[in-house]
Amino acid sequence: MSKFYVVATPIGNLGDITLRAIETLKDVDLILCEDTRETKKILDKYGIVKPTMSYHAQSKLSKTDKIFELLEEGKNLALVSDAGTPGISDPGALLVSKIKEYLSDSVDVIPIPGPSAIIAALSASGLPTHEFTFLGFLPHKKGRETLFKEIAISERTMVFYESPHRILKTLESLVKFCPDKKVCVARELTKIYEEFKTGTPAEILEYLNKNKEKQRGEFTVIVA
Ligand code: SAM
Fold first, then answer.
1. Is the CB of residue 117 less than 8 Å from the CB of residue 189?
2. Which atom of ligand 1 sits closest to the CA of residue 191?
3. Residue 108: its H or E element
4. What residue ranges define each of the domains in the chain, with the CATH number in brackets?
5. The Tetrapyrrole methylase domain covers which part of the protein (predicted)?
6. 173 lines ligand 1 (CB under 6 A)
7. Sheet strands (E) in 57-209
8. C-beta separation of 107 from 61 below 8 A
9. DSSP readout, 186-216?
10. pLDDT tens string 59-80
11. Quick one: which H or E segment has residue 111?
12. Do residues 183 and 154 lie in contact, with contact meaning Cβ atoms separated by under 8 Å?
């Protein structure tokens, strides 16, 4: 059986990689990367010298054919994204689903777990974590208002990813649709300027408006 490893990599701090992830990346025949230049940073840090091939959201069907060919030849492959766990708001889910559908007799799909911004954010947020719904990135237009209405009435903790360009807009919507909820904005997790800020949507909005430098970076938002 060929092996197809889905390998989680750091979400900022390059130290956040498991021993098993390093061993796996050293052992496989080829590493599929969302962006080969991003992955090179981690490969260089851990002295991993392996052929890489790009596989991203815009990859053509011919790329999938090539990957299938390699697996059918008996090659072992690893898939990584730029940061965190592949397939979680990142390329990989469709490829894994196709491998499982068409090559399940000849390929084992094996997760190598590790960082994911959702779990890191939840774990140190102080908000309820026993049940949560992950929303990925919120839609920009269609379905956006409906989603905020769902967040407003949900009894479960809601978690989503947000870009620095849209964080203020999203907080404005939270102020409008669910002013009494608690929001935790987890910014730049595992990096130098890591920060958790918790409060009502209005309090967080005011904080970000007053501190423009805090509007930069990567955000995971939790609403409870
Ligand atoms: N697959 C990744 C994972 O498992 O975490 C998520 C990839 S998604 C394309 C990237 C988004 O995740 C960012 O826009 C941000 O919302 C969130 N994210 C990634 N790294 C983060 C970090 N260090 N701190 C906070 N949020 C982060």
1. yes
2. 23
3. strand 107-112
4. 2-112 (3.40.1010.10), 117-223 (3.30.950.10)
5. 3-203
6. no
7. 77-80, 107-112, 132-137, 157-162, 183-187, 195-199
8. no
9. EESTTSTT-EEEEE-HHHHHHHHHH-GGGGS
10. 888 899 999 999 999 999 999 9
11. strand 107-112
12. no
Task: Give the pair of three-digit tokens for residue 46.
Answer: 């851990």
| Alpha-carbon gap, residue 166 to 62, rounded angstroms | 34
Q: Which atom of ligand 1 is nearest to the CA of 220?
A: 26
Taking the centre of ligand 1 as the mean of its atom positions, its distance from the CA of residue 47, in whole angstroms, is 25
Query: What pLDDT, in 10s, does the model give residues 5-58?
Result: 999 999 999 999 999 999 999 999 999 999 999 999 999 999 999 999 999 988
Whether this prediction's pTM lies above 0.90 is answered by: yes
- Token digits of residue 71: 């697996």
The token duo for 109 is 């799909």
State the pairing for strand pair 30-33/132-137: unpaired
Does the CB atom of residue 161 touch ligand 1 within 6 A? yes
